Amino acid sequence: MKTKKIDQLLIRIILCILPILVYEVVFIFGEPYNYFGFHGTERESKSPISAMRYAKRGNLRNVLIGDSKVARIDTEELYELGMTDEYYYNLAFAGATTKEKCDMFWYANQFNDLKSVVIEINFWNTQTAISSDRVELVKPIVDNPMQFILNKDYNIDFLREKFQNSEVNEGSVNTGSLEVYKEYAKSIWHDKMEDYSFSSDILELEKVINYCNSNNINIRLVAFPMHRYVWDEVIQSGELSNVDLYKAILAENAPLFDMEYPDNIYTDSLGYSDGNHILGYDSLDREDFEQDYPMTADILNILFNMRGDNYRMYNKTVIEELILSEEEIAIECDENIGIMSYEINLTEDSVYKISFSMNDQDNIPEIFYMDFWGETYDDPKQDITISLDNQTQCYSAIIDTAEIPQEQLYFRIIYQGEGKININNLTITKLSCE
Amino acid sequence: MTLTSIHFFVFIIIALILYFNFPPRYKWIILLFSSLYFYIYTCGKYVIYIIVTGITTWLAAYFLNKSNSEKRQNIIVAFTILLNFGILALVKYYGFCVENIEKLFLIWGWEVHIPKYSFVLPLGISFYTFASIGYLLDVKHKLYECERNFAKYFTYIIYFPHIIQGPIGRINRLKEQIEKNNCFDYVRTIKGLQLMTWGYFKKIVIADQLGIIVDLVFGDYTRYTGLLCIISVVFYSIQIYADFSGCMNILGGISEIFGITLDKNFETPYFSTSIPEFWRRWHISLGAWFRDYLFYSVLRSKWVEHIMKSLHKKFDKKRIRNLPTYISLAIVWFTTGVWHGASWHFIIWGVYYGILIISSTMWKKQIKNITNRLKIKVSCDSFKLFQILRTYILVCFGYILFRADNMKIAFGMIKQIFSTNYISCFLDGNIFSGLSITGGQWLIMCISILLLFLVDLYNQKDNFAIWLSQQNLVFRWGFYWSIVILIFIGFVMQNGGYGNTVQFIYMQF
């Protein structure tokens, strides 16, 4: 009797939630991210979640990491058409920042025995103003299907795709004339370059490079060409030296296939959709593809096969000028706050690297913060918050000075925590390019 | 663990399976451990507070029962009350008191620095402290025997469906039900599930969605017109009702499945015709607690008696005969304000209700005379509607004081409301501009509010659940499915309870 009643109850509950169950089944089989892998190996969406889900399934040997400039490349088709020597799985996604690219590498590396990695790099996404952290944000959703099927954004994307026939997270790429390039360069790159400030994310990329080198993973970096109108914005902003420095730091330990320089023949090409993104990825199977899209064909050849003429192997080197060096510093705290400051001479619009180690792992402060500071020089761009932990001993960060006033400036170390802390081998070096 | 998380559902299912399959004599042990798990999972080490309250009140009740000396009994009760209300005051009001003492000294020109400590408010501290003190006083007044088994007593205190937001239940009523052999009951389970579903609908679909608008407007009222401020106050009145009563429905529904009926905490309060009636229908258990343990205690206290005696010498007896009631009411409403939080706006809000209730009691006769002279028909529906509207407006005004983060915002909002040109507001086009709410969201909100209103209106006279069960299959299932789909949409809008979830309003008290 009791069992019968429980059965009856369960039937009623199931009937009650039937519309939701039906929707969920439709969602699971029709969602655009191929989260559950029902759509084969194809990555239909260029979003972080589909890349991470695929990376989690394992068996990837060669991967391509980057932003929207490479996210649109159908690597599977390229391989099938014999245009690449090896199959690269495309883990790129629209708007990926340098930090996100690094996170994607570490995530893929966690589940796969990687053989080679191609990372598309660009300097404008390595600045303090851009700090999205989608790979970290999406991680719990990648690991938990319930979180995925109940997520508002993915459900809305699914419904939009089904009812409005719009593709998800592709980023809008408009095809157009030179006017489109101009407009695009002004609207996007102008703002990005206007307030450019070097970020420490480049050091994260350096860690990825060092890891690959010490684990026999073949790594190469590729900088994509851009149209003259976009270049003009970079040159006008006066950040060309930073572009060089950025590349020099990375090229120290990895081959950098650089197609991004003002006198590259592609700066005047009409093969862009907007001055930055390349046309022709959807015409790979056409016989006259190489004829119609010579720049795209060349870039793909350089990117995957390391063959082609219109690139340079970046070979400038970084010059490091020592500004401050301290073997051991002990900082005492007063009411949970500890401060140490040094008078320092800084140069305007220069990049400084700060490195230190913490040998004493017992007393890790809750908040650890460093900055360049003056009475009228107190911009968050010169502030660095470092997350200290028990595992890491060596830390480094980068600060871009930007405009500096005529006054005494200081390098400060501030922490919040209990007791005294010891900092070892503190060095501040000014970085420049030869 | 929030009530809108998947984890909570899994927890409930496991607790129910264990409960119904445990030997009848020991079923309460499942309730104890599941409640402890819930509490520790939600509050961690702060479980110590409820353990201290449990031990002290249980011991006090035990010794009260053994002692025959009234003096000794009074000492035990006073010490236990002081200790427990002291803990409550320390964690809830310490920061507020220190801040105000420092300000007070500063007015006199003394800069005093009192050490500042921040305490985490343990889950349901106001609710379980009141419930256990109520138990102690009942034992003292010999209303019932004390519980000899501490573990059982602690189960009554920590029972998870009533620890979160009350109701501040009477321990004896809970005890009787927990000790019964509660087996799986199909009808009760269906009733419980229906209650839970209705509760989730109120919380997820109505309260959380309205909360977005309310937070926006109260967050920066200067950006919005007076009309939008009024709308947000009305929305807040619906939000807080849907949130609080929704939580009561969810927890009441869960408890019903366990075979334990919780005390009623709401009775369609917005249909009240007066403020005293509103408070008899809103947060009923808190009102009842204050009435039974504070109002009557003050009314019968020796010091009130003493005041009255001294006043009788100076004033006419007739004129001051209601003074003890007013004193008791003033204390009750001041305490109600303080109970809600350590902030001046809560205290002013309590005082506001105190003034309303005392004045309505004071002028009851005069108002009756006026209505008689004007020949107003007080029994007709239109007058009743007027009374309901008047009460609702007064309640809404109180909500401005209640919801604002401080008095400055409250007064600012009131000023904004009264300094708006309402005619141009309507002529200017979209009165909702500035609120980033889509048309779809508005539609869902309006339909849901209308549904809530109609169900409450029906519940005024009859039982909506019974009415629904008598309808045709298509209508009945259409209604169920609509509610379930709306809950699902609301649930997905909150990312399924993952990440930042919207807490229940009364959880903070």
Q: How do the helices and strands line up, and which of them pair or pack?
A:
The complex is a heterodimer of chains A (about 425) and B (about 500).
Chain A: H1 2-16, H2 18-30, H3 48-57, E1 62-65, H4 68-71, H5 75-80, E2 89-90, H6 98-111, E3 116-121, H7 134-143, H8 145-149, H9 152-164, H10 178-194, H11 201-214, E4 218-223, H12 228-236, H13 240-251, E5 256-258, H14 289-292, H15 294-305, E6 312-313, E7 318-331, E8 333-334, E9 337-344, E10 351-357, E11 367-373, E12 383-385, E13 394-400, E14 409-416, E15 421-433
Parallel strand pairs in A: 1-2, 1-3, 3-4, 4-5
Antiparallel strand pairs in A: 5-6, 7-15, 8-9, 9-14, 10-13, 10-15, 11-12, 11-14
Helix pairs in contact in A: 3-6, 3-7, 6-11, 10-12
Chain B: H1 6-20, H2 27-43, H3 47-66, H4 70-107, H5 125-140, H6 150-158, H7 160-163, H8 171-179, H9 186-219, H10 226-258, H11 275-281, H12 284-299, H13 302-314, H14 323-340, H15 344-362, H16 364-373, H17 381-403, H18 407-418, H19 422-427, H20 439-461, H21 464-469, H22 473-493
Helix pairs in contact in B: 1-2, 2-6, 3-4, 3-5, 3-6, 4-5, 6-8, 9-10, 9-20, 9-22, 10-17, 10-18, 12-14, 14-15, 15-17, 17-18
Helical amount among residues of chain B, as a percent range?
A: over 70%
State the helicity of chain A in percent bands: 25-40%
Provide the spatial order of strands within the biggest beta sheet of chain A: 2-1-3-4-5-6
* Overall residue-averaged pLDDT value of chain B: 86
Q: How many individual β-strands of chain A?
A: 15
Query: So what's the overall shape of chain B?
Result: globular
Distance between the termini of chain B: 17 Å
**Any idea what the radius of gyration of chain B is?**
25 Å
Question: Pairing-aware structural class of the strands and helices of chain B?
Answer: mainly alpha
Strand content of chain B: under 5%
Largest sheet of chain A: 6 strands, mixed
